[in-house]
Amino acid sequence: MTTPRTDGQWVAFGHVIQDEPVMAEGRIALDTGAYATGVLTAAVLGDGPPRFVTA
What we know:
Elements: E1 11-13, E2 22-24, E3 27-29, H1 34-37, E4 41-44, E5 51-54
Parallel strand pairs: 1-3
Antiparallel strand pairs: 2-3, 4-5
């Protein structure tokens, strides 16, 4: 987690609750604590940069 990814791939992960989803250095932190906050977050991956959807 201390070295930026340089292979052009994204790694999405959870289990570390964030106030907002975070996308940086090839990593996507998605866990917005839905069980506690009521905010569920997903990443849409495809053509172009990842984007977030919350419900």
